[in-house]
Design a protein that fits this description.
It is a single chain. The protein is of the alpha/beta class. It has two domains: 49 residues, Orthogonal Bundle (Helicase, Ruva Protein, domain 3), CATH 1.10.8; 124 residues, Dna Topoisomerase Vi A Subunit, Chain: A, domain 2 (3-Layer(aba) Sandwich), CATH 3.40.1360.10. 42% of the residues lie in helices and 14% in strands.
Length: 198
């Protein structure tokens, strides 16, 4: 791609390294960017840098936030004794969009996958176990219904049940292998309401 000159090629290369951006989209974006007003480019790069530097894990639920506690954990109106365990922040956002869940969350940032060599120590499991030493009534496991999500749910329930805490799993209305973030709110709510105790 040297016919673009090295600066343009570098921009295209950086953009095509992003998930879901193929070579063609990267070229299109690169051309769009160099034709953008300079202030707009500054705003874009500033937003990227600012987000990268200031977004961290909530010290309670491990979701991504720019505060010590995310808005959900900081909200005293939420039921802090009910914890829904999800694989990532996008899943949390999907449940929040339903507007019906009153509890709090725990974000694992992944799922156990022996195939990919991802073990319990590679996700935010230790942080969850620490939280369970507090006053917790129920843990709702809302990991995806993929192989990894199911393995994680099984592992979690074996780990948590002996502590005498109620453990439930969202209903299997969620399609197998389906990512939670792509499922509509009605299906999510149904899955939550139809959860079964493990
Ligand atoms: Zn939080």
């Amino acid at each position: 791609m040297d016919y673009y000159g090295s600066l343009m090629s570098k921009l295209i290369e950086q953009l095509s390294a992003l998930p879901g951006i193929g070579a063609k989209s990267a070229q299109r974006l690169a051309f769009h960017i160099i034709h953008m007003p300079k202030e707009q480019v500054d705003q874009l790069t500033g937003a990227i840098q600012n987000a990268r530097e200031n977004i961290c894990y909530c010290k309670e639920c491990c979701t991504l936030t720019d505060q010590e506690l995310c808005p959900i954990c900081a909200n005293e109106q939420r039921d802090h004794r009910t914890i829904m365990v999800v694989e990532n922040t996008r899943d949390l956002a999907a449940y929040e969009k339903t507007g019906k869940y009153e509890g709090v969350y725990h974000v694992l940032h992944g799922a156990i996958s022996p195939l990919l060599g991802i073990g319990p120590a590679d996700i935010k499991l230790k942080e969850l176990m620490l939280r369970l030493q507090g006053d917790v009534k129920e843990v709702i496991i809302a990991t995806n219904s993929s192989l990894e999500g199911e393995a994680t749910a099984m592992y979690l329930s074996k780990l948590i049940k002996p502590a005498g805490i109620k453990v439930s799993r969202i209903a299997s209305g969620v399609p197998v292998g389906g990512d939670l973030e792509y499922i509509d709110e009605v299906t999510l709510l149904r899955a939550l309401e139809g959860r079964v105790q493990l």
